[in-house]
Specification:
single chain; six-stranded mixed sheet; alpha/beta; about 40% helix; 2 domains; Nucleotidyltransferase, domain 5; about 400 residues
Length: about 400
C-alpha cells in the first residue's frame, strides 16, 4: 500500500510518499510559493505538480487538518459531511484550516478515485478534562461559539509520548510526561497515564510560551490598550500577535534561534534578552505541569529547536535540581537531534529525553488502519512505533 501524506499550508504543500509494506519513505518534498509569482497558481496546480513527480500508483491520501473542533476525536475517512464539519470550524483556525480545506478539495479533484483521510492536530488533546479546557469567560461563549482550549501539534505529542514510554520500558498508560514541542510554533503538553490532560496552546495556536513570531501568553488588556493608543483594526492586531511578536518582536530582527544565538554571542542585548525570556517562560510551564501531574517520569524535547538546540535545553532546565531534574552536560551537548537520546544525569529523579518527532508516520498508520478496518481512537490504538524494536526515522 502506497500512502501520500499531505500537509497543506497557505502557500506551500509538504508531502511524503510512503510504502507501508516496505516501511520506508519512497520520496518527500515541498512545493512552495503557491499563489505567488513564480509558483503554482493554486493548490490544485501544486497537487498536479506533485502527482506528476511521484513514481507509481497512490492507494490513499492522509491530510493534516489543524483544527477539528470538538467533533473529531480521531482520524476519519473524508466525505462531504466531514468536509463540511471541517469547514464549519475554520474560523477557529483562520490561518490553517482554509489551506487544509483547499488541499483536501484539490487532492480529491486530482485523485478522485482513492480514499482521503483527515488527521487532526486537535484530536490527541480531546482527552483533557473540563478544568483544563474551559476558560474563565462567560460560559455561554463555549456553548455558542466553541470557545475553549483545543491544543495543537497533537500528532507530534502523540508520537513522542509513545516513544518515551518505550524508552522508559513502560506501557503508555503507565507514564506521566511533559512533552515539549519547540519549533517556530511551541506547545507543551502534560501527559498523564498516556493521555493529554493539559496543553499550552488554546482556542488557537497563539497561546502558550514565546514562539518564533507569535506572542504566546500575554495580558489580554494589552490588546485593548494598544487599540486605544494606535487605533489598530482586528486584522492588524491579528497580524502583530501572530507574525510580528514572539522572538521576532523582542529582537526586532530574528525569529530563527540560530540567528538569535549568533547575535547574542556577538553582544546583541535584545537577542540575549530573547534567550532569557524564552527559557524562563518554558521553565514556568514545566513547573506548572509538574504541579498538575503530581508525578512526572520524564521531560521530552522535540521539534526543530527542541531536538537540535542543546544550549536552549540547558537554559530551560537550569536551576531545576531541587525538583529532581538534572541535565547531564556532556550528554546534552552531544545530542544533536539525530537519534533518541537520554540527556539527564544518572541521579536525575525525572529523566530527560530528546526524541525526534515523526508526525507523518502517525498520519500513515492512521490511514492504513482505517482502510483495513482496525482503527480505534488513539486512547485504545497501538502504533507500530510503540514496539521496543522499532527504529525511528533518524536512527
Amino acid at each position: 500500500m502506497i500512502i501520500l501524506a499531505l500537509n497543506c499550508g497557505s502557500s506551500s504543500v509538504k508531502y511524503k510518499l510512503f510504502s507501508w509494506e516496505e516501511r520506508k519513505t519512497v520520496t518527500n518534498g515541498v512545493i512552495e510559493r503557491i499563489g505567488i509569482e513564480g509558483g503554482p497558481r493554486d493548490h490544485r496546480d501544486a497537487l498536479q505538480e506533485i502527482i506528476r513527480s511521484l513514481p507509481g500508483k497512490i492507494d490513499a491520501v492522509g491530510h493534516r487538518v489543524v483544527h477539528g473542533g470538538e467533533k473529531f476525536k480521531s482520524s476519519v475517512l473524508i466525505n462531504d459531511e466531514v468536509l463540511e464539519a471541517i469547514r464549519s470550524v475554520q474560523d477557529l483556525a483562520p490561518l490553517h484550516n482554509p489551506p487544509n480545506i483547499a488541499g483536501i478539495e484539490a487532492a480529491k479533484e486530482v485523485l478522485p478515485n482513492i480514499p482521503h483521510i483527515a488527521v487532526f492536530d486537535t484530536a490527541f488533546h480531546q482527552t483533557m478534562p473540563e478544568q483544563a479546557f474551559i476558560y474563565p469567560v462567560p460560559y455561554e461563549w463555549y456553548g455558542m461559539y466553541g470557545v475553549r482550549r483545543y491544543g495543537f501539534h497533537g500528532t507530534s505529542h502523540l508520537y513522542v509520548s509513545r516513544r518515551a514510554a518505550v524508552l522508559l520500558g513502560k506501557k503508555p498508560s503507565e507514564v506521566n510526561l511533559i512533552t515539549m514541542h519547540i519549533g517556530n510554533g511551541v506547545s507543551i503538553t502534560a501527559v498523564k497515564n498516556g493521555i493529554s490532560v493539559d496543553t499550552s496552546m488554546g482556542l488557537t495556536p497563539l497561546e502558550g510560551p514565546v514562539m518564533g513570531t507569535r506572542s504566546g501568553d500575554i495580558d489580554p488588556a494589552i490588546i485593548l490598550f494598544m487599540i486605544e493608543k494606535e487605533g489598530f483594526y482586528v486584522e492588524e492586531v491579528d497580524s502583530i500577535l501572530n507574525k510580528k511578536s514572539g522572538l521576532l518582536g523582542i529582537t526586532g530582527k530574528y525569529m530563527d534561534r540560530r540567528d538569535i544565538d549568533k547575535a547574542a554571542t556577538a553582544g546583541d542585548k535584545r537577542a540575549k534578552l530573547a534567550q532569557v525570556i524564552e527559557a524562563y517562560r518554558l521553565r514556568k510551564y514545566i513547573g506548572s505541569y509538574l504541579a498538575a501531574l503530581g508525578h512526572v517520569d520524564a521531560i521530552v524535547f522535540t521539534a526543530g529547536a527542541g531536538e537540535k538546540n542543546f544550549a536552549l535545553r540547558q537554559r530551560v532546565l537550569s536551576e531545576l535540581d531541587m525538583l529532581g531534574i538534572r541535565l547531564d552536560k556532556n550528554r546534552n551537548e552531544n545530542s544533536k537531534g539525530q537519534s533518541e537520546e537520554l540527556i539527564s544525569a544518572d541521579d536525575s529523579v525525572i529523566k530527560i529525553f530528546v526524541v525526534p518527532t515523526d508526525e507523518e508516520i502517525v498520519f500513515i498508520e492512521d490511514v492504513v488502519a482505517i482502510l483495513e478496518g482496525r482503527y480505534e481512537t488513539h486512547t485504545h490504538f497501538k502504533y507500530s512505533f510503540e514496539n521496543p524494536d522499532y527504529k525511528g526515522k533518524t536512527q
